[in-house]
């Protein structure tokens, strides 16, 4: 007879099958099958099952009694025909469950006044050996309950018959219709769009989750710090080399992120030589690099689905010209000042830091010959100084930049100057584009820079070669 007491304390087994999880196949890593990726107790890298449970409890606590939150997993996206893109889970769904498969629905129902008075249900794909032989392993219904800790787990095929009763009896339904896959057979889309079925009391979910997600836990910060450390070292290593093609530098960074421990790149990088840096989101990365120009790199890896965001600009030759040094130092001075304001004690918002950054750039650029003021600085600095980061590169969409920064907020600080070929600007700076960006975690009295391994001082950059 199977004796569960003989298992490792962290091991799990299925009472129905009476086999260890280590002997089963899942659609994503679990500790028993991938101990080189997950430590005991973790559901995803760095994040424990307990933390996921605490997140669901926090969401339930933020809802009124009788409230029901409904979240739909992201769909698999196809590139062409049967060729699909790597799967990326919908961020709110992932933040609450750790589940990393498509065709799933999570339902969190507030059942009482206390912190842990809630029911967590999941509707997921059944395990299917024949389909899994072709399309990869699945987690399955048992895993939703026994590993991902759903109180109740059902086949996604039963959602249409089981979910209506839960939703129709709810006092208030929290859901984001835009995140529901656009499929005529999808019950949730029919429920939220049909005049006959629409719930009389429905409200968006994302503002509630944004307030929870925007303040990062110690584990989340640790994941972002790991991604920042690996990414920063990769960018510094890239500065040591004499690149001639943007695509080669792009490939080098992607490889360095992956081989040194990141899941891979967090986003398509910008590798912009010369005046192509004046295109803020230049990502085709298919041109040549010339030794007398700058290259602007905006790149970062992710770890455990948490991202890092870094921008660095350096002379392709390894040596700054006088004009390059003057413009670069102007941006760097402002960046240092703006980073220093990312502390709770400063009582600043990202919007306020943006204003200080713009004024700082005006002052610095005037000192090196630019005829610039607050009335036209947006011609040279057209984007915001920063954004929230976390699971997404632009995290918690819809959360205001006017909120005062507090401990646990993670943001970017990225002043930039982009000088077009226009004779209203000094000729020796025309065609240069510079952005210097770090990922920062706000602490009480000082900013915690997550990306410090990416060097940015002129002397440090030149010393690499």
UniProtKB/TrEMBL annotation:
Its cofactor is Mn(2+). Its EC number is 3.4.11.9. It comes from the Eukaryota. It is an enzyme of class 3 (hydrolase). Keywords: Aminopeptidase, Hydrolase, Manganese, Metal-binding, Metalloprotease, Protease. InterPro entries: Aminopep_P_N, Creatin/AminoP/Spt16_N, Creatinase/aminopeptidase-like, Pept_M24, X-Pro_dipept-like. GO terms for cellular component: mitochondrion. Residues 47-184 form the Aminopeptidase P N-terminal domain. One of its GO terms (molecular function) is manganese ion binding. Coiled coil: none annotated. It catalyses: Release of any N-terminal amino acid, including proline, that is linked to proline, even from a dipeptide or tripeptide. Pfam families: AMP_N (PF05195), Peptidase_M24 (PF00557). Catalyzes the removal of a penultimate prolyl residue from the N-termini of peptides. This is Xaa-Pro aminopeptidase. The lineage of its organism: Eukaryota, Fungi, Dikarya, Ascomycota, Pezizomycotina. The gene is ICP55.
